[in-house]
Every structure is written in C-alpha cells, then in structure tokens.
Amino acid sequence: MADAIEEKPPESPPASPSARSTRRKKKKVVVAIDDSEGSFQALRWALDYLFSAADAAAAPPLSPPSEKPVLGLVLILHVRRPLQKFIVPAAPGPAAGIYVPSSSVIESVKKAQEQNSSLLLSRALKLCKEWPVKAEKMVMEGDPKEMICEAVESTRPDLLVLGSRGLGSLRRTFLGSVSDYCAHHAKCPVLIVRPQSKEPVQKK
C-alpha cells in the first residue's frame, strides 16, 4: 500500500512593493498658504518629500491603466482676514476716531480679497497637478491662526504644513506667530518650513 502523501499548501510569497503600498495609509495633509513665497515653498516641500515619485512608482496598477496613482489628499487652506475698522486722527492732538468704511468700500475690498484668494489657490492647485495627489481648496475668513486650527479640527489631517515668514525675535514678541500658535494649539503634528531652508523644523 502506497504511503499517503500529505500535501502542504504552498507558502505565500513575500509581499511585493505594490502589495505593501496598498496597505499604506494615504496621507491627508493641510497646507496653509498666503501671498508670501514662504507658504508656497512649504507647499513644494510637502509635495516633494511627502508624496515622492518613488512611492508613486511602487503603487499598484490602476484600472483603467491611464489613471495616475493617488498617494494622498492635500488640502490647500487660505484664510482671508476680516475687514478691519480704520483708526484715523479725529482732531489735532492725540485724539483718534474710528472711521467705518462705507458699504461700497467694503464691497470693493471683499472683491479684491476674493480675487486674491482665487489667484493664490489656482497657483497652488496647478502646482499640485505635478504630483500624484488629489488637491482640494479651502477658504475661511477670520484670524488665520484660529481658523487654521479650526480647519485642522474639522478635517483631521495627518499633518499640518506651514511656511515661516522668518520674523525677528522682536517682531515675534509683539506680533506673535501664526506658525508658533498652530504648533502649540493644532490637534495634529505640525511641520514648519523655514524660508531658504532645505530642511523643515518638526514642532510636534
């Protein structure tokens, strides 16, 4: 009688880079921009280092093949400051009064703000097209540091990326810093990219 042969199931092959990439969590990153070049430098850093071409090449093939792999979501956030009242001298001397802009002036300023926001966001979204990411825009109005933290709380990103204006110590003391505030109050890790610096500063 022939000996029974127990067949063992074949061993699973080691996971390929493509298989490993499917298990990777797609990143969600918030990048706050304004009209400073530093904020766009921060955006470029995030795209270069968080969504690399090597990761895109290792991504599994898509169906249809013509589609590009998407490694994550980049939320481009722009905060418009509310229109402030103007303080002007009301009479000779130290006395001052508050000038309230007319409705036409307010409307004109708001229109200019909207146009500026549109230009900034269009530039940012165009830049994102060069990387394997999905990009969406967000516009908020209010104090930038508070609105950025509010956006983080509502969107729950993996990382908040900010540019630094490189303020001197005296200006930082009196004016405060949006990036410093967010580093202490945002409910996610915060990464600050300094101007003309190749390496960012990890704050949290």
List the helices and strands and how they pair.
Layout: H1 17-23, E1 27-33, H2 37-50, H3 53-58, E2 72-80, E3 86-89, E4 96-99, H4 103-128, E5 134-141, H5 144-155, E6 159-163, H6 169-175, H7 178-185, E7 190-193, E8 201-202
Parallel strand pairs: 1-2, 1-6, 2-5, 6-7
Antiparallel strand pairs: 3-4, 7-8
Helix pairs in contact: 5-7
Number of structural domains = 1
The CATH architecture can be named as 3-Layer(aba) Sandwich
Gyration radius, to the nearest Å? Answer: 25 Å
Classified by CATH, the class is Alpha Beta
Q: Give the uncertain stretches in residue-range form.
A: 1-10, 15-23, 170-175
* Form type: globular
Mean pLDDT: 76
Distance between the termini: 71 Å
Structure explained in plain terms:
Helices cover 39% and strands 21% of the residues. It is an alpha/beta fold and 204 residues long. The protein has a single domain (26-202), classed as HUPs (Rossmann fold), CATH 3.40.50. The model is unreliable at 1-10, 15-23 and 170-175 (pLDDT under 50). The longest helix is centred in the middle third of the chain and has 26 residues, at 103-128. The chain has helices at residues 17-23, 37-50, 53-58, 103-128, 144-155, 169-175, 178-185, and strands at residues 27-33, 72-80, 86-89, 96-99, 134-141, 159-163, 190-193, 201-202. The protein has seven helices and eight strands, in the order αβααβββαβαβααββ. It is globular. The protein has a six-stranded mixed β-sheet, sandwiched between helices. A two-stranded antiparallel ribbon has the order 3-4. It starts with 16 loop residues before the first helix and ends with a strand. Residues 1-10 have a biased composition (Basic and acidic residues).
